[in-house]
Amino acid sequence: MNFYKSAAMALDHLDKHQGSVKGSLAAAGVTATGGEAKRILALTIETLKYRPIILQLIEKTTIQSIERLVFPRKTPRNSPSSQSLLLVLLHDLLFSSRLKIEASDKWPPKEAILRHQARLRAELVRIQIKEGKSRKEDLAKTSGDGEVVRYVRYNPNSGKTLQELFAHLESDKLGFERLEEPVYPVPQRKYFMDPHLDDVLLAFPGGSNWWLRDEWYEGGGVILQDKASCFPAKVLMEGWEEDEGECIDATAAPGNKTSYISALMQNQGKLHAFERSPNRYKTLERMLEKAHCTNVDARRADFLESNPDSYEYSKVTRILLDPSCSGSGIVNRLDYLIDDDTEESDSKVERLEKLASFQLQMILHAFKFASAKRIVYSTCSIHPEEDERVVMSALKSSIAKERGWGLAPKTSVLPGWERRGRPEEMGGDEDLANGVIRCLPEDKTNGFFVSCFVRDGTGLWPRAKPNPRTLKRPRKDGPDAEGEAEETKDDDGEVEEIAEEATAGGESKVKTAAQLERIRRKKAQQKAKKRKV
Ligand SMILES: C[S@@+](CC[C@H](N)C(=O)[O-])C[C@H]1O[C@@H](n2cnc3c(N)ncnc32)[C@H](O)[C@@H]1O
């Protein structure tokens, strides 16, 4: 019951238009942790998806006014509004997988709603017919252009073949038909192999959920993973040969990319996986087990504390860095459900600065591994501060120069992918910009960024005279880093915690264009103040 009230209070808070769903939960005083918090978050998000439809039902059945004793127009302080409570309860009754309100039958709000059950269901069918939707799920609000694709990655580590998966999907039980060519939006009950990852990635219609309680999903034969999130592993493992050496996934949980790298290594050799957060490490362990990854040595450890010169990592040739980021590219879960981002621009700038500094530090640490020759850096962010600008700072670092790290050219970074980097963020250098890839929702993926550093003689370097906006400025003074906790999202929308870090040596202290802009603004403000005095 409290669980419904908490979700309803978060909806009320969102109604007042104050930030993200998660932020609204905190602001509404919802303090649940662990599984309970996830459940409340999920209910809030799911309710938002069906909100316009549920509001129509409330209006058509006039349930709120008929049951005004239970759902009064005005509710006491610290209680949710009647409308929001109705929204979450009706969501569970009509759209949840169990199709019921999970509370005692004697709870007055549930009793009141059940009195109108038949009418509510009938109205819902009417709306479905009017909207031309054969399934209720198709009434859900989606992220914009109606071209949402649900991607599913085939996992060869499971020991089953792709042909077996096709047969399963096309069986009478599931009844899918495979198309030879991509069609967008993907038609109902059809699927096809994604044109960029045609050996592993299957594309389904947006509302698909055939994998719920399906043996292939439960048994790790398929993994739900956004298309863009598959790219880093694909780029990292380009040209891999079994006897080349070992790999590192420096920031592994929940483990989607780890399991893909493991599969690309044919589950052979050794993949060292680091995860710093204890909770997320547990998720990683579960994921690796489910995905049958037997070549992964996972540890709960901070990658920045690993010793690049140790014998243990002497055979590591490839490193994936997919560090904590702002998650600004994730559009398919939360962001489209609320109108816009009301975060104050200054705090946003500061947050990006901190993230960029941490991300750069991760790259510079990876550069130190003696045998490393290919490093992929990716984010699920669309901000240049975390993407191209971090890459430029890394390329200009002294360690990159000392160890010969350059940027891999387009030819070895998914050349078939059209959307490349922003030249204006890379000193105007088209070749560098073509070396990295970006993804946007219009590409039917999450917003994403992938870059690849190499030291095999093919690497690109920034031009001698780079764009001053992207210049790295080593900081000679200033405070050392403190462990300030910050929350970010990974590309699957999971909330993660990062602790901001920086080195005392100043190697990773960068001033991004955003920082410079802030300094400029502060100076201008000070000048204006002086003038007034
Ligand atoms: C964006 S997520 C990674 C998602 C993952 N690559 C996947 O595809 O499933 C970043 C992860 O890195 C972890 N992390 C952040 N800093 C770290 C560090 N210094 N060492 C190890 N793990 C770190 C975070 O806790 C978080 O789980």
TrEMBL record:
It comes from Kwoniella shandongensis. Coiled coil: none annotated. Keywords: Methyltransferase, RNA-binding, S-adenosyl-L-methionine, Transferase. Residues 519-533 have a biased composition (Basic residues). PROSITE patterns: SAM_MT_RSMB_NOP. GO terms for cellular component: nucleolus. This is Uncharacterized protein. Residues 463-533 are annotated as: Disordered. The lineage of its organism: Eukaryota, Fungi, Dikarya, Basidiomycota, Agaricomycotina. PANTHER family: 28S RRNA (CYTOSINE-C(5))-METHYLTRANSFERASE, NOP2 YEAST -RELATED NOL1/NOP2/FMU SUN DOMAIN-CONTAINING. Residues 480-500 have a biased composition (Acidic residues). Transmembrane segments: none annotated. Belongs to the class I-like SAM-binding methyltransferase superfamily. RsmB/NOP family. One of its GO terms (biological process) is rRNA base methylation. InterPro entries: MeTrfase_RsmB-F_NOP2_cat, MeTrfase_RsmB-F_NOP2_dom, NSUN5_RCM1_N, RCMT, SAM-dependent_MTases_sf. GO terms for molecular function: RNA binding; RNA methyltransferase activity. S-adenosyl-L-methionine binds at E275, D302, D322. The active site is at C380.
